[in-house]
Design brief:
Elements lengths: L12 H7 L1 H11 L11 H9 L2 E6 L1 H18 L3 E5 H4 L10 E7 L5 H12 L3 E6 L5 H5 L2 E4 L12 H20 L8 H16 L2 H12 L4 E6 L2 H17 L2 E6 L16 E6 L5 H12 L4 E7 L9 E3 L7 H19 L18
Parallel strand pairs: 1-2, 1-3, 3-4, 4-5, 6-7, 6-8, 8-9, 9-10
Helix pairs in contact: 2-8, 2-9, 3-8, 4-8, 4-11, 8-13, 9-13, 10-13, 11-13
The structure holds 6-O-phosphono-alpha-D-glucopyranose (G6P).
Main location: cytoplasm
Function: Catalyzes the first step in hexosamine metabolism, converting fructose-6P into glucosamine-6P using glutamine as a nitrogen source.
Subcellular location: Cytoplasm
Length: 362
């Protein structure tokens, strides 16, 4: 549908695609539901999950970051062990594979050559493969045994946004449907929780002014920035750093809170921006301890927390969602912070230098 790829009144595709996330979420919930309102996935895919003793997720860039969160979903909900690998590295040091591996390729475009190279080599070994992609008929979709679609609509901006949250939603559904097929008690209703996520996304998309202000305050004059978090917040921090690097050219890195003291803290100077995520109750106090350590060395902290865990010093509070699903919404302030940082620096938001939307060379 050509109207899908018009910018309309938006100045950039990236902003339009960020704003589409609540809609995409609702579309995914709807598409993956059966007439009884239950989440459903093709039985052959669920059988492949159940037949496997270990899942290997292969991806690049933002899709790799989605894979890190996906591992948590599959391990915690479906209780199948998962390894996540950067596609371009997998070939050099192929891990010792389990007896019955299932390979999941996560790729927005379905065309990434690094991921395809792995697909070709594991197919030669006779292993089963599933592609999670936004593009029906893409190379990775055609060549894998099975496909799950993201239904996110065309993503035009080079920096991936709605595809990431769509990948997380589809991975959570895959984990849930697998768990149900194994008669595991979940203790939550994923359809309901993803609905809460969609509403929370809307609230965040309506908070642009505050995030623009935060971005200006923390990132308008800096060479670098650090993102810290523990547990899944660390993975969202990696994605936040990647977004910022890609479009604003600020040197940004994501670190695990506990790892700071083992090296990175040496980089903290007067005014170094530190973006800290605090969405997990179990690590709330320890990440705040890390913030104190960097503040004591002069850092300029921006704490993004989840409702219920917030403290006075926090810059931004995201609405409460199920603790497993926080990455689906905590990433939105990361996307918007990067967007406004790029705008303030007059960067070409949709077409950053040196990058391509899909990289079809190894
Ligand atoms: C390129 C894009 C990234 C993307 C990565 C993986 O490097 O610039 O935004 O995350 O490829 O793309 P894929 O289509 O496989 O998800």
């Amino acid at each position: 549908d050509a109207s899908d790829i018009e910018k309309g009144t938006y100045p950039h595709y990236m902003l339009k695609e960020i704003d589409e996330q609540p809609l995409v979420m609702r579309k995914i919930i709807q598409t993956y539901q059966n007439e009884q309102g239950e989440l459903t996935i093709a039985p052959e895919i669920i059988n492949a999950m159940n037949d496997s003793d270990r899942v290997y997720i292969i991806a690049a860039g933002t899709s790799y970051h989605a894979g890190l969160v996906g591992k948590q979903f599959i391990e915690k909900i479906a209780k199948i062990p998962v390894e996540v690998h950067v596609a371009s590295e997998f070939g050099y040091n192929m891990p010792l594979l389990s007896d019955k591996p299932l390979f999941i390729f996560i790729s927005q475009s379905g065309e990434t050559a690094d991921s395809r190279a792995v697909l070709v080599s594991v197919k030669e070994l006779g292993h089963r493969t599933l592609t999670i992609t936004n593009v029906p008929g893409s190379t990775l979709s055609r060549e894998a045994d099975y496909t799950l679609l993201l239904h996110a609509g065309p993503e035009i901006a080079v920096a991936s946004t709605k595809a990431y949250t769509a990948q997380l939603a589809v991975l959570s559904i895959l984990a849930e449907v697998t768990a149900k097929s194994r008669n595991y008690t979940l203790g939550f209703d994923l359809v309901h929780e993803l609905g809460i996520v969609a509403n929370a996304m809307e609230v965040l998309c309506d908070s642009k002014e505050l995030i623009e202000h935060i971005s200006r305050e923390f990132l308008s004059v800096t060479r670098n920035a650090f993102f810290i978090g523990r547990s899944v917040d660390h993975y969202v921090g990696l994605e936040g750093a990647l977004k910022l690097k890609e479009i604003s050219y600020i040197q940004a890195e994501g670190f695990a809170g506990g790892e700071l003291k083992h090296g990175t803290i040496a980089l903290i100077e007067e005014g170094t921006p530190i973006i800290a995520l605090a969405t997990q109750e179990s690590v709330n106090l320890s990440i705040r301890g890390n913030v104190k350590e960097v503040v004591a060395r002069g850092a300029n902290p921006c704490i993004i927390s989840m409702k219920g865990l917030e403290m006075d010093e926090d810059s931004f509070v995201i609405p409460e969602v199920h603790e497993l699903l926080t990455p689906l919404i905590s990433v939105i302030p990361m996307q918007l912070i990067a967007y406004y940082a790029a705008l303030h620096r007059d960067c070409d938001v949709d077409k950053p230098r040196n990058l391509a939307k899909s990289v079809t060379v190894e």
